[in-house]
Queue: 2 jobs
Job 1
Amino acid sequence: MNHYSIQVGIGRDLVPAFSDDWVVGLTDLTPQVGKAAALIQTGRAAKAERVFPAERAYPLPRQLENRRSPRR
């Protein structure tokens, strides 16, 4: 299935702000993942895709569209 997640690393100094101020909710997808896995194992991958919400592009300000991150 084409369903992705993003893992972002942040510096130690940002962890308190991230965990206390920026995160507004968490959703446990364990039941949905179990249901999707069962559907896939029984040959119903198309139905499994409908278990999760449709992905949508994250809105990016126009000034950042062509900006490249610095290489390390």
Job 2
Amino acid sequence: MPTRTAAELREQAAREYDAFLATCPARQLLDRISDKWVTLVVTALADGPQRYSDLSRRIAGVSQKMLTQTLRSLERDGLLTRTVTASVPVRVDYDLTPLGRTLMPLIAAIKSWADTHMPEVNNARTTYDHPSNPSAQEIRQREGARA
């Protein structure tokens, strides 16, 4: 068996991950990082380590269960660390790992895009939802038939 270079091994690994395939692990990762809570947690941690209660206050609308699940999944994927400091009460801090920090430019760009283009999206939604829009009428009829 011939020895392969690091570049050849990376190329092979890249071929093995194709998110368009249902069984690809990259699809699971895409699902995870596209979650709204993941996006908000990663963005909140961009400023540095934070405690659970700080994250809970900063991210409006997140339930305790959802925040806990999100933090655990990000820790499992190596995107954040959980540091427990022995004190009274015990202090737990969450921080992005170097791998998690590589997501920041991407998430920041998507958040910025959403903030910038929300008026246009709202206009498109209003136009689409207008009663005179044939596409919207067809959808409402189909949904009414299912009910």
